[in-house]
């Protein structure tokens, strides 16, 4: 869709061929270019005999190279050979000239779209210094401008570039604009989608029939499609003409499997002759129900032998034909024989762009005390209503194994708790909670396949309760937070953790990495009616890998905590598979 035509012809006259192998090249008249630079421009190896045509090509290449480095008046004047004993020396005489100025630029052809405002933004201007790189940048900028305003077939040709007759240190430049036809998108077509409905994919692009062709909007549409978890590949969209002569866009894509499961198992060695601890979690996600992008998710987790948790969720996209998805969820957590926590909730996510989304959530949580032992821990029957809002920015190129990009997410909310016991311990029945959280990740490919990944996370809970109860505390430790420690080993009302990884990229879903994790926990508690606090900070180091196989992506993480030796680290094994 883009073509730039450069016209630059330099004619040279050279003599006979070298009769003996060339041993050395000596340049005369060069002031700005070193001999090594000029020799590289010629690309003429020594210690070899050359025919006249080969030498002519080398000298033409030298003249062209100087011209393309902005020395428009450079020329190769002559050459001669010299025999010194058994050595042949080639002498090249040249004139570099000086850098050229621009006497005048004329825009010819279909220039209706080139307003004065657009032309003033160009780097190449009358009276300025001529530069090929600036000229190429200007031409590319104008082609982008045309493509963003409905002219994808525009092209610009350099029709004249010559020395000015009055000012011999300057050139005159003519550029011809050929805008091509104005293009409106009359249809959207998708190929390769066997399950996903084309109507759903068309909505995901955010493109409207009848819109003018706009390269930015089309690239954004491709990003939207690539973010769908059940779409594996989206090729560069192409223009197509149907039987009625209308122009539209065709997206060639490849679907992935519509369901996926993530299984993680962990093992922590025992302490003081105790047996080791097994932990595990299973994430099952069923995607793209009926080809319309609907999802269902089941999460089961067993952090240790005393705790089990399950989460269920259903997500409906494009509610009321708007870029809004609605999630309904239920979860239950059983803490041994002490208590059960259940919550029902809903969440609405509005997609503002291919990078930014905002969301709001409402949920109802109930704590049901199962044992008298819970009273000693000041856990009481209660019900809490929460309202939360958040925003997320995600520019990562591949969320499961990113090479470049940034993730930033933050949320805040408030909860209203009411105790349901007939005689609450504190004597007060109603309390207010405030929650905030931040997640961030930066991935940078420093060298080919070598990636630096830095992630930070923080959670904070404030309440007017005498002390924050056990069911409300945040949990830190394990495969998803602080590797090298047991699952949910640390509890606190404020927690923060982060990781620094050096990765070697092995494929779309494969990598090897070294990591350092760090995390801190802050918790307040009452002791003999005194309010005390405790802060814990822990670090760990380790290594891991993700390897894509026919079964899925296998993961291994081995973390060593501060008090562990090399053989007493925590092992986490995972399998992420699609079916």
Summarize the structure.
This protein has 579 residues and is mainly beta.
**CATH top-level class of the largest domain:** Mainly Beta
Q: What structural class do the secondary elements suggest?
A: mainly beta
Largest sheet: spatial strand order: 12-13-14-15-16-17-18-19-20-21-22-25-26-27-28-29
Q: Return Rg in Å.
A: 34 Å
The name of the CATH superfamily of the largest domain reads: membrane protein fhac: a member of the omp85/tpsb transporter family
Strand content: over 45%
Oligomer: single chain
Helix tally?
7
Unreliable spans: 1-17
> What is the tally of beta strands?
29
Strand count, sense and barrel status of the largest sheet are:
16 strands, antiparallel, barrel
CATH topology of the largest domain: Porin
Backbone shape: elongated
Count of folded domains: 4
Q: Return the CATH architecture of the largest domain.
A: Beta Barrel
Distance between the termini: 39 Å
- What does the average pLDDT come to? 88
Report the helical percentage. Answer: 10-25%
Describe the model.
This protein has helices at residues 35-42, 52-68, 116-120, 132-147, 198-205, 215-226, 373-376, and strands at 4-5, 24-28, 75-84, 87-95, 101-109, 155-163, 170-178, 188-191, 231-234, 238-241, 247-255, 259-268, 277-289, 294-304, 307-316, 324-335, 339-351, 356-369, 382-394, 405-419, 430-447, 450-463, 474-476, 490-492, 494-505, 511-527, 530-548, 553-561, 570-578. It is mostly beta strands and 579 residues long. It folds into four domains: 4-95, membrane protein fhac (Ubiquitin-like (UB roll), Roll), CATH 3.10.20; 101-178, Roll (Ubiquitin-like (UB roll)); 188-255, membrane protein fhac (Ubiquitin-like (UB roll)); 259-578, membrane protein fhac: a member of the omp85/tpsb transporter family (Porin), CATH 2.40.160.50. The strands form five sheets. A 16-stranded antiparallel beta barrel has the order 12-13-14-15-16-17-18-19-20-21-22-25-26-27-28-29. Strand 6 and strand 7 form a beta hairpin.
